[in-house]
């Protein structure tokens, strides 16, 4: 099948026109030969016209899709991403360094300053000479970092249940020594000095902390194994112990491990990883091949990558007897060993010069054997005993906390019951009030007493309590016969009133009230 794509046709057209130009001399030669053969004026004229047409031909312009053309200009290689240092302020540290290196003056000072001078803060003073653009960006980075720390403090407080407690961010920021918390807005010389000192100290302690964590991991693993054995009977315990010894022996049965950083170890990487002839091993070429970011130094991560082949001899993630946590500890041990032997200025980097000097030492050419983790137990018997005592104490503390929490739970449940009872009583009172409203019960009318008048009670009989009937007529009022003598002899009325238990009006009137004598015949 013929390819008739536009690119193909253009290529053919360009090739044909080019061929016409290239073969013009050949056509002229053929014409001359033919002229010699024909030797006629007519033929000569015809061939001259044909020759002029051939020489005046121009190639047809070829339309090219520029969008499909490959860019022939060399592209600048992107700088590899910085490796995570493992510090909690790693991002802030790397961003500050990246922006400082964009300033030419600071970059030159950084590359020419000794590590001891950097630790002493001499490099930080060069911040005053950094461009205004870089300083502005550093100010922004610091404000973002302070905001991030405040967010972390608030989140921690929320988790601990202190939502209603006012947070003193200024006091809490003191724990972050890598920045000046008193000035949260601008990046100053003190900030750079604090960042350098903190990063240096933290990185030096980082490996120690990793070793301690691994030691605790190993002791806890052994503690759990011993506790598991206690739950088994004699026969099962014996089988478990035999299986454990078999796994240890199987793990220790591996090829010889080369001394890290030795000639044999690097040659093995040169041959197996790089695919080169070990007889052609060249330290300088090896360094450039494995300086992955091309900065002229081996950092810790680049060094650790060199030990992968050795670690694969000991550890396989598919094997039951191989622990990948132990593999990472072994990698750390190898890197620390090489750094101690090669890093002469202790800047945690291996320069090309330091590497070349190390390849000429006796330790590089004739190294000692390397002892792996199974040959060096991570903890002592005394450390194991102290660790178990700590676990026992920790378990007791947890049990006591569980008891306290149980008591608090019971107390809360009791309080909840009381609240529920109060809620029921309140609900009953509300329902009672609602019933009274629906019955529309009116309160008794108010009685106003004027002077000494005796209030008149209506419906007294109906208001008597149950069982109290109306009294007889003789008890209701004195007979008319008894009232007539009182009316006829007013002077004896008081005596009769006293005898009947009635108040004597003359002597018991309130002060200022005189007895009024009225004519009985008056209307």
UniProtKB/TrEMBL annotation:
Keywords linked to the UniProt accession: Calcium, Cytoplasm, DNA-binding, Golgi apparatus, Guanine-nucleotide releasing factor, Membrane, Metal-binding, Phosphoprotein, Repeat, Secreted, Signal
Protein name as annotated: Nucleobindin 2a
Chain intervals for the UniProt region annotation (Disordered): 225-262, 437-523
GO cellular component terms given for this protein: endoplasmic reticulum-Golgi intermediate compartment; extracellular exosome; Golgi apparatus; membrane
Comp. bias intervals (Basic and acidic residues): 225-248, 437-449, 514-523
SUPFAM superfamilies: EF-hand
Topological relation to the membrane, as annotated: Peripheral membrane protein
Biased composition (Low complexity): 477-490
InterPro entries named among the record's database cross-references: EF-hand-dom_pair, EF_Hand_1_Ca_BS, EF_hand_dom, NUCB1_N, Nucleobindin
Annotated EF-hand domain residues: 278-313, 330-365
Gene giving rise to this polypeptide: nucb2a
Taxonomic source organism: Gadus morhua (Atlantic cod)
Principal subcellular localization: cytoplasm
PROSITE patterns registered for this protein in UniProt: EF_HAND_1 (PS00018), EF_HAND_2 (PS50222)
Family per similarity comment: Belongs to the nucleobindin family.
């Amino acid at each position: 099948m013929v390819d008739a794509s536009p690119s193909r046709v253009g290529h053919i057209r360009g090739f044909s026109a080019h061929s016409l130009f290239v073969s013009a001399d050949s056509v002229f030669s053929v014409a001359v030969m033919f002229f010699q053969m024909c030797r006629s004026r007519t033929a000569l004229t015809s061939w001259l016209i044909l020759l002029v047409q051939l020489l005046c031909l121009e190639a047809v312009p070829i339309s090219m899709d520029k969008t499909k053309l490959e860019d022939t200009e060399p592209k600048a290689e992107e700088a590899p991403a910085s490796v995570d240092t493992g510090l909690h302020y790693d991002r802030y540290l790397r961003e500050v360094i990246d922006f400082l290196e964009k300033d030419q003056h600071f970059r030159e000072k950084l590359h020419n300053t000794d590590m001891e001078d950097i630790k002493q803060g001499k490099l930080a003073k060069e911040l005053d000479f950094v461009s205004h653009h870089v300083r502005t960006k550093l100010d922004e980075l610091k404000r973002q970092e302070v905001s991030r720390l405040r967010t972390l403090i608030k989140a921690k407080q929320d988790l601990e249940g202190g939502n209603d407690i006012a947070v003193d961010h200024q006091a809490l920021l003191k724990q972050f020594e890598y920045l000046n918390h008193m000035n949260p807005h601008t990046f100053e010389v003190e900030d750079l000095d604090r960042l350098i000192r903190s990063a240096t100290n933290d990185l030096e302690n980082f490996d120690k902390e990793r070793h301690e964590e691994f030691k605790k991991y190993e002791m806890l693993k052994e503690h759990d194994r011993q506790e598991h054995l206690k739950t088994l009977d004699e026969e099962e315990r014996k089988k478990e112990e035999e299986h454990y010894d078999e796994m240890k022996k199987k793990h220790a049965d591996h090829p010889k491990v080369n001394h890290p950083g030795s000639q044999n170890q690097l040659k093995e990487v040169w041959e197996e990883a790089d695919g080169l002839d070990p007889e052609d091993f060249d330290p300088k070429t090896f360094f450039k091949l494995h300086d992955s970011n091309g900065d002229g130094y081996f950092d810790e991560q680049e060094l650790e990558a060199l030990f992968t082949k050795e670690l694969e001899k000991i550890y396989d993630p598919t094997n039951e007897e191989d622990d990948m946590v132990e593999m990472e500890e072994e990698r750390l041990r190898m890197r620390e060993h090489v750094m101690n032997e090669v890093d002469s200025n202790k800047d945690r980097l291996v320069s090309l010069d330091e590497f070349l000097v190390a390849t000429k030492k006796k330790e590089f050419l004739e190294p000692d054997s390397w002892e792996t983790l199974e040959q060096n137990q991570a903890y002592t018997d005394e450390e194991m005993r102290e660790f178990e005592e700590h676990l026992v104490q920790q378990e007791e503390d947890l049990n006591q906390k569980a008891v306290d929490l149980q008591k608090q739970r019971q107390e809360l449940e009791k309080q909840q019951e009381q609240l529920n009872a109060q809620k029921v009583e309140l609900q009953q009172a509300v329902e009672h009030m609602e019933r009274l409203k629906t019955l529309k019960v009116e309160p008794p009318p108010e009685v106003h007493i004027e002077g000494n008048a005796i209030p008149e009670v209506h419906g007294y009989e109906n208001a008597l309590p149950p069982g109290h009937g109306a009294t007889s007529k003789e008890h209701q009022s004195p007979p008319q016969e008894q009232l007539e003598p009182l009316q006829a002899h007013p002077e004896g009325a008081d005596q009769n009133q006293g005898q009947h238990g009635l108040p004597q009006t003359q002597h018991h009137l309130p002060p200022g009230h005189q007895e009024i004598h009225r004519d009985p015949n008056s209307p």
